[in-house]
Amino acid sequence: MKKREEEVQGQVKMSLLERYLAVEIGIEFKACLYFFCILFFYSMYRLLCGSMEASILHMGEMIFLTYGMGYIQKYILDNFDEADRWGLREIGFLLLCVGIYTAVSYWGGWFDRRIPATAFYASFMTLAYICGFLVYKVKRTLDAKQLNEDLRVFQGRDGSQAPKQEHT
Amino acid sequence: MKYTIEHISQGENEVILRCHSPSAEMEQLIRFLESQNRKLIGNKDGIRTILEPSQILYVESVEGKTFAYAESEVFQMEYSLAQLGQLLGAVNFFRCSKSMILNIDKVRELRSLASNRIEATMCNGERIMISRTYASDFRKRLKGVRQQ
Protein backbone atom coordinates (compact mmCIF):
# COMPACT_ATOMS: atom_id res chain seq x y z
CA MET A 1 0.00 0.00 0.00
CA LYS A 2 2.79 2.39 1.00
CA LYS A 3 4.75 1.48 -2.13
CA ARG A 4 1.67 2.14 -4.27
CA GLU A 5 1.19 5.54 -2.58
CA GLU A 6 4.84 6.35 -3.21
CA GLU A 7 4.46 5.31 -6.85
CA VAL A 8 1.40 7.52 -7.16
CA GLN A 9 3.22 10.38 -5.43
CA GLY A 10 6.17 9.82 -7.72
CA GLN A 11 3.83 10.08 -10.68
CA VAL A 12 2.26 13.26 -9.24
CA LYS A 13 5.68 14.84 -8.63
CA MET A 14 6.85 13.97 -12.11
CA SER A 15 3.65 15.37 -13.58
CA LEU A 16 4.10 18.66 -11.70
CA LEU A 17 7.69 18.88 -12.93
CA GLU A 18 6.59 18.16 -16.47
CA ARG A 19 3.90 20.79 -16.21
CA TYR A 20 6.35 23.35 -14.86
CA LEU A 21 8.80 22.60 -17.66
CA ALA A 22 6.10 22.88 -20.31
CA VAL A 23 5.13 26.33 -19.00
CA GLU A 24 8.75 27.43 -18.61
CA ILE A 25 9.64 26.35 -22.13
CA GLY A 26 6.61 28.20 -23.49
CA ILE A 27 7.65 31.40 -21.70
CA GLU A 28 11.25 31.17 -22.91
CA PHE A 29 10.17 30.45 -26.46
CA LYS A 30 7.96 33.52 -26.51
CA ALA A 31 10.68 35.60 -24.83
CA CYS A 32 13.11 34.66 -27.60
CA LEU A 33 10.58 35.60 -30.30
CA TYR A 34 9.93 39.03 -28.84
CA PHE A 35 13.64 39.52 -28.17
CA PHE A 36 14.37 38.81 -31.82
CA CYS A 37 11.76 41.40 -32.87
CA ILE A 38 13.25 44.04 -30.59
CA LEU A 39 16.80 43.17 -31.63
CA PHE A 40 15.83 43.50 -35.30
CA PHE A 41 14.34 46.97 -34.73
CA TYR A 42 17.34 47.98 -32.62
CA SER A 43 19.78 46.75 -35.29
CA MET A 44 17.97 48.70 -38.02
CA TYR A 45 18.04 51.83 -35.82
CA ARG A 46 21.80 51.43 -35.25
CA LEU A 47 22.38 50.97 -38.99
CA LEU A 48 20.31 54.05 -39.82
CA CYS A 49 22.40 55.98 -37.30
CA GLY A 50 25.49 54.92 -39.24
CA SER A 51 26.77 52.48 -36.67
CA MET A 52 27.70 48.84 -37.19
CA GLU A 53 27.92 48.21 -33.44
CA ALA A 54 25.37 47.23 -30.82
CA SER A 55 25.53 47.42 -27.06
CA ILE A 56 25.73 44.11 -25.20
CA LEU A 57 24.25 45.85 -22.18
CA HIS A 58 21.22 46.86 -24.23
CA MET A 59 20.83 43.30 -25.52
CA GLY A 60 21.05 41.99 -21.97
CA GLU A 61 18.32 44.42 -20.92
CA MET A 62 16.19 43.30 -23.84
CA ILE A 63 16.37 39.59 -23.09
CA PHE A 64 15.70 40.07 -19.37
CA LEU A 65 12.79 42.34 -20.20
CA THR A 66 11.21 39.88 -22.65
CA TYR A 67 11.72 37.04 -20.16
CA GLY A 68 10.09 39.04 -17.35
CA MET A 69 7.27 40.11 -19.66
CA GLY A 70 6.73 36.46 -20.54
CA TYR A 71 6.06 35.69 -16.90
CA ILE A 72 3.81 38.75 -16.53
CA GLN A 73 1.82 37.79 -19.63
CA LYS A 74 1.45 34.20 -18.49
CA TYR A 75 0.56 34.66 -14.82
CA ILE A 76 -1.02 38.12 -14.64
CA LEU A 77 -2.27 39.02 -18.12
CA ASP A 78 -3.74 35.60 -18.93
CA ASN A 79 -1.67 35.14 -22.11
CA PHE A 80 -3.78 37.76 -23.86
CA ASP A 81 -1.68 37.56 -27.04
CA GLU A 82 -2.95 33.98 -27.52
CA ALA A 83 -6.61 34.87 -26.90
CA ASP A 84 -9.28 33.78 -29.33
CA ARG A 85 -10.52 37.30 -29.84
CA TRP A 86 -9.52 40.70 -28.59
CA GLY A 87 -11.87 42.88 -26.56
CA LEU A 88 -11.31 45.94 -24.40
CA ARG A 89 -9.51 43.85 -21.79
CA GLU A 90 -6.99 42.46 -24.25
CA ILE A 91 -6.42 45.86 -25.85
CA GLY A 92 -5.80 47.29 -22.39
CA PHE A 93 -3.21 44.57 -21.72
CA LEU A 94 -1.63 45.28 -25.10
CA LEU A 95 -1.26 48.97 -24.28
CA LEU A 96 0.18 48.08 -20.87
CA CYS A 97 2.82 45.77 -22.36
CA VAL A 98 3.75 48.21 -25.11
CA GLY A 99 3.98 50.92 -22.45
CA ILE A 100 6.38 48.82 -20.38
CA TYR A 101 8.54 47.99 -23.39
CA THR A 102 8.62 51.66 -24.42
CA ALA A 103 9.40 52.92 -20.91
CA VAL A 104 12.28 50.47 -20.47
CA SER A 105 13.68 51.34 -23.91
CA TYR A 106 13.64 55.03 -23.00
CA TRP A 107 15.11 54.44 -19.55
CA GLY A 108 17.83 52.18 -21.00
CA GLY A 109 18.64 54.66 -23.75
CA TRP A 110 18.26 52.02 -26.46
CA PHE A 111 17.34 54.69 -28.99
CA ASP A 112 19.39 57.49 -27.42
CA ARG A 113 16.22 58.78 -25.76
CA ARG A 114 14.99 60.14 -29.07
CA ILE A 115 11.24 60.62 -28.91
CA PRO A 116 10.47 59.90 -32.61
CA ALA A 117 12.52 56.70 -32.56
CA THR A 118 10.95 55.61 -29.27
CA ALA A 119 7.45 56.36 -30.60
CA PHE A 120 8.18 54.35 -33.74
CA TYR A 121 9.45 51.53 -31.54
CA ALA A 122 6.15 51.63 -29.59
CA SER A 123 4.25 51.28 -32.89
CA PHE A 124 6.52 48.44 -33.91
CA MET A 125 5.87 46.57 -30.66
CA THR A 126 2.12 47.09 -31.09
CA LEU A 127 2.41 45.57 -34.55
CA ALA A 128 4.48 42.69 -33.16
CA TYR A 129 1.74 41.86 -30.65
CA ILE A 130 -0.96 42.07 -33.32
CA CYS A 131 1.05 39.78 -35.59
CA GLY A 132 1.57 37.38 -32.68
CA PHE A 133 -2.18 37.31 -32.05
CA LEU A 134 -2.90 36.65 -35.74
CA VAL A 135 -0.23 33.94 -35.96
CA TYR A 136 -1.71 32.08 -32.96
CA LYS A 137 -5.20 32.47 -34.42
CA VAL A 138 -4.15 31.04 -37.78
CA LYS A 139 -2.31 28.21 -36.00
CA ARG A 140 -5.44 27.31 -34.04
CA THR A 141 -7.60 27.47 -37.17
CA LEU A 142 -5.30 25.07 -38.98
CA ASP A 143 -5.12 22.86 -35.90
CA ALA A 144 -8.92 22.77 -35.68
CA LYS A 145 -9.11 21.81 -39.36
CA GLN A 146 -6.74 18.90 -38.77
CA LEU A 147 -8.60 17.87 -35.61
CA ASN A 148 -11.94 17.79 -37.42
CA GLU A 149 -10.44 15.82 -40.28
CA ASP A 150 -9.07 13.26 -37.82
CA LEU A 151 -12.46 13.23 -36.07
CA ARG A 152 -14.26 12.38 -39.34
CA VAL A 153 -11.84 9.55 -40.03
CA PHE A 154 -12.25 8.31 -36.47
CA GLN A 155 -16.04 8.38 -36.62
CA GLY A 156 -16.08 6.69 -40.01
CA ARG A 157 -13.83 3.82 -38.90
CA ASP A 158 -16.55 1.16 -38.98
CA GLY A 159 -19.33 2.69 -41.02
CA SER A 160 -20.90 6.07 -40.58
CA GLN A 161 -21.18 6.90 -36.89
CA ALA A 162 -20.86 10.66 -37.21
CA PRO A 163 -23.67 12.70 -35.63
CA LYS A 164 -26.34 13.35 -38.23
CA GLN A 165 -26.95 16.97 -39.12
CA GLU A 166 -30.61 17.86 -38.96
CA HIS A 167 -31.93 20.32 -41.51
CA THR A 168 -35.24 22.10 -40.98
CA MET B 1 -4.27 -9.59 -38.70
CA LYS B 2 -6.45 -10.83 -41.51
CA TYR B 3 -10.22 -10.96 -41.32
CA THR B 4 -12.93 -12.88 -43.19
CA ILE B 5 -16.59 -11.96 -43.57
CA GLU B 6 -18.92 -14.87 -44.18
CA HIS B 7 -22.48 -14.05 -45.33
CA ILE B 8 -25.17 -16.29 -43.87
CA SER B 9 -28.79 -16.64 -44.90
CA GLN B 10 -30.08 -17.55 -41.44
CA GLY B 11 -29.03 -17.58 -37.82
CA GLU B 12 -27.79 -14.85 -35.49
CA ASN B 13 -24.92 -12.51 -36.39
CA GLU B 14 -21.84 -13.73 -34.61
CA VAL B 15 -18.24 -12.64 -34.33
CA ILE B 16 -15.60 -15.34 -33.82
CA LEU B 17 -12.04 -14.32 -33.02
CA ARG B 18 -9.32 -16.90 -33.56
CA CYS B 19 -5.85 -16.38 -32.09
CA HIS B 20 -2.95 -18.11 -30.41
CA SER B 21 -3.06 -15.43 -27.72
CA PRO B 22 -4.97 -12.11 -27.82
CA SER B 23 -2.88 -9.24 -29.15
CA ALA B 24 -3.41 -5.61 -28.06
CA GLU B 25 -5.35 -5.11 -31.27
CA MET B 26 -7.66 -8.02 -30.53
CA GLU B 27 -8.20 -6.95 -26.94
CA GLN B 28 -9.23 -3.52 -28.17
CA LEU B 29 -11.68 -5.19 -30.54
CA ILE B 30 -13.04 -7.37 -27.74
CA ARG B 31 -13.54 -4.31 -25.50
CA PHE B 32 -15.36 -2.56 -28.32
CA LEU B 33 -17.67 -5.53 -28.92
CA GLU B 34 -18.34 -5.87 -25.20
CA SER B 35 -19.25 -2.20 -24.91
CA GLN B 36 -21.68 -2.51 -27.83
CA ASN B 37 -23.51 -5.33 -26.11
CA ARG B 38 -23.22 -3.83 -22.66
CA LYS B 39 -26.24 -2.26 -21.07
CA LEU B 40 -26.03 0.25 -18.25
CA ILE B 41 -28.55 1.12 -15.59
CA GLY B 42 -29.40 4.72 -14.85
CA ASN B 43 -31.98 6.52 -12.76
CA LYS B 44 -34.21 9.28 -13.95
CA ASP B 45 -36.95 10.75 -11.75
CA GLY B 46 -36.75 7.65 -9.57
CA ILE B 47 -37.27 5.30 -12.50
CA ARG B 48 -34.55 2.81 -13.37
CA THR B 49 -33.75 2.84 -17.07
CA ILE B 50 -31.56 0.64 -19.21
CA LEU B 51 -29.08 2.63 -21.28
CA GLU B 52 -26.93 1.65 -24.20
CA PRO B 53 -23.47 3.17 -24.43
CA SER B 54 -24.34 4.56 -27.86
CA GLN B 55 -27.02 6.75 -26.24
CA ILE B 56 -24.52 8.45 -23.96
CA LEU B 57 -22.92 11.73 -25.05
CA TYR B 58 -20.76 12.13 -21.98
CA VAL B 59 -20.50 11.12 -18.35
CA GLU B 60 -19.74 13.54 -15.56
CA SER B 61 -18.94 13.12 -11.89
CA VAL B 62 -20.34 15.84 -9.62
CA GLU B 63 -20.01 15.78 -5.81
CA GLY B 64 -19.45 12.05 -5.74
CA LYS B 65 -22.40 11.29 -8.01
CA THR B 66 -22.11 10.18 -11.60
CA PHE B 67 -24.43 11.39 -14.33
CA ALA B 68 -24.75 10.19 -17.91
CA TYR B 69 -25.99 12.75 -20.41
CA ALA B 70 -27.97 11.59 -23.42
CA GLU B 71 -29.15 13.99 -26.12
CA SER B 72 -31.93 15.52 -24.06
CA GLU B 73 -31.96 13.51 -20.84
CA VAL B 74 -29.76 13.09 -17.81
CA PHE B 75 -29.45 9.85 -15.86
CA GLN B 76 -27.88 9.33 -12.49
CA MET B 77 -25.71 6.24 -12.75
CA GLU B 78 -25.19 3.51 -10.21
CA TYR B 79 -21.48 3.36 -11.01
CA SER B 80 -18.54 5.55 -10.14
CA LEU B 81 -16.70 7.39 -12.90
CA ALA B 82 -13.81 4.91 -12.66
CA GLN B 83 -16.19 1.95 -12.98
CA LEU B 84 -17.89 3.52 -15.96
CA GLY B 85 -14.51 4.20 -17.47
CA GLN B 86 -13.80 0.48 -17.36
CA LEU B 87 -17.26 -0.54 -18.56
CA LEU B 88 -17.11 1.95 -21.40
CA GLY B 89 -13.44 1.28 -22.08
CA ALA B 90 -13.99 0.99 -25.82
CA VAL B 91 -12.29 2.98 -28.54
CA ASN B 92 -14.92 5.70 -28.69
CA PHE B 93 -15.04 6.74 -25.01
CA PHE B 94 -12.34 9.06 -23.79
CA ARG B 95 -11.47 10.54 -20.39
CA CYS B 96 -11.34 14.25 -21.22
CA SER B 97 -10.90 15.66 -17.72
CA LYS B 98 -10.69 14.54 -14.09
CA SER B 99 -14.47 14.35 -13.86
CA MET B 100 -15.66 13.64 -17.37
CA ILE B 101 -15.70 10.89 -20.01
CA LEU B 102 -16.65 11.81 -23.54
CA ASN B 103 -18.21 9.73 -26.34
CA ILE B 104 -16.11 10.67 -29.35
CA ASP B 105 -18.70 9.33 -31.76
CA LYS B 106 -21.13 11.96 -30.50
CA VAL B 107 -18.80 14.89 -31.13
CA ARG B 108 -19.99 17.14 -33.95
CA GLU B 109 -17.07 19.55 -34.11
CA LEU B 110 -13.74 20.32 -32.47
CA ARG B 111 -12.20 23.73 -31.87
CA SER B 112 -8.63 24.45 -30.85
CA LEU B 113 -8.36 26.95 -27.98
CA ALA B 114 -5.50 28.84 -26.38
CA SER B 115 -3.21 27.01 -23.96
CA ASN B 116 -3.52 23.73 -25.92
CA ARG B 117 -7.10 23.08 -24.88
CA ILE B 118 -9.74 21.65 -27.19
CA GLU B 119 -13.45 22.44 -27.19
CA ALA B 120 -15.76 19.65 -28.35
CA THR B 121 -19.25 20.55 -29.55
CA MET B 122 -21.55 17.57 -29.06
CA CYS B 123 -24.35 16.53 -31.38
CA ASN B 124 -26.92 18.28 -29.12
CA GLY B 125 -24.96 21.55 -29.17
CA GLU B 126 -23.39 21.24 -25.73
CA ARG B 127 -19.74 22.21 -25.43
CA ILE B 128 -17.22 20.14 -23.51
CA MET B 129 -13.73 21.31 -22.66
CA ILE B 130 -10.88 18.87 -23.13
CA SER B 131 -8.24 20.14 -20.75
CA ARG B 132 -4.61 20.62 -21.69
CA THR B 133 -3.58 17.59 -19.63
CA TYR B 134 -5.78 15.30 -21.72
CA ALA B 135 -5.63 17.11 -25.05
CA SER B 136 -2.47 15.44 -26.33
CA ASP B 137 -3.81 11.94 -25.51
CA PHE B 138 -7.01 12.89 -27.28
CA ARG B 139 -5.09 13.84 -30.40
CA LYS B 140 -3.23 10.51 -30.24
CA ARG B 141 -6.53 8.67 -29.89
CA LEU B 142 -7.87 10.33 -33.03
CA LYS B 143 -4.64 9.80 -34.95
CA GLY B 144 -4.41 6.20 -33.76
CA VAL B 145 -7.32 5.23 -35.95
CA ARG B 146 -5.95 7.19 -38.92
CA GLN B 147 -2.60 5.41 -38.63
CA GLN B 148 -4.29 2.00 -38.68
What's a concise summary of this model?
The complex is a heterodimer of chains A (168) and B (148). By secondary structure, chain A is mainly alpha-helical. Helices cover 77% and strands 0% of the residues of chain A.
Descriptive terms for the model:
heterodimer; A: 168 residues; mainly alpha; disordered C terminus; B: 148 residues; alpha+beta; OB fold (Dihydrolipoamide Acetyltransferase, E2P); three-stranded antiparallel β-sheet; globular
SSE order and pairing:
The complex is a heterodimer of chains A (168) and B (148).
Chain A lengths: L1 H47 L7 H20 L12 H21 L6 H41 L13
Chain B lengths: L23 H14 L2 E5 L2 E5 L6 E5 L2 E5 L4 E4 L3 H7 L5 E5 L2 E4 L3 E6 L5 E5 L4 E4 L1 H16 L1
Antiparallel strand pairs in B: 1-2, 1-5, 3-4, 3-7, 4-5, 6-7, 8-9, 9-10
Describe what this molecule looks like in 3D:
The complex is a heterodimer of chains A (168) and B (148). Chain A has 168 residues and is mostly helical. Chain A has one domain (7-151). Chain A is 77% helix and 0% strand. Chain A contains four helices and no strands. Chain A has helices at residues 2-48, 56-75, 88-108, 115-155. In chain A, helix 1 packs across helix 2 (56-75), helix 1 (2-48) crosses helix 4 (115-155) and helix 2 (56-75) packs antiparallel against helix 3 (88-108). Residues 1-13 and 164-168 of chain A have low confidence and may be disordered. Chain B has helices at residues 24-37, 81-87, 132-147, and strands at 40-44, 47-51, 58-62, 65-69, 74-77, 93-97, 100-103, 107-112, 118-122, 127-130. Chain B contains three helices and ten strands; from the N terminus they run αβββββαβββββα. The longest helix of chain B is centred in the last third of the chain and has 16 residues, at 132-147. Chain B is globular, with a radius of gyration of 17 Å. Chain B has a single domain (24-147), classed as OB fold (Dihydrolipoamide Acetyltransferase, E2P) (Beta Barrel). Chain B is α+β, with helices and mostly antiparallel strands and 148 residues long. Chain B starts with 23 loop residues before the first helix and ends with a helix. Chain B has a seven-stranded antiparallel beta sheet with strand order 2-1-5-4-3-7-6. Chain B has a three-stranded antiparallel beta sheet with strand order 8-9-10. Chain A binds chain B through residues 79, 82-84, 136, 140-141, 143-144, 147-148, 150-151, 153-155, 157, 161-165, and chain B through 91-92, 104-115, 118, 122-123, 139, 141-143, 145-146, 148.
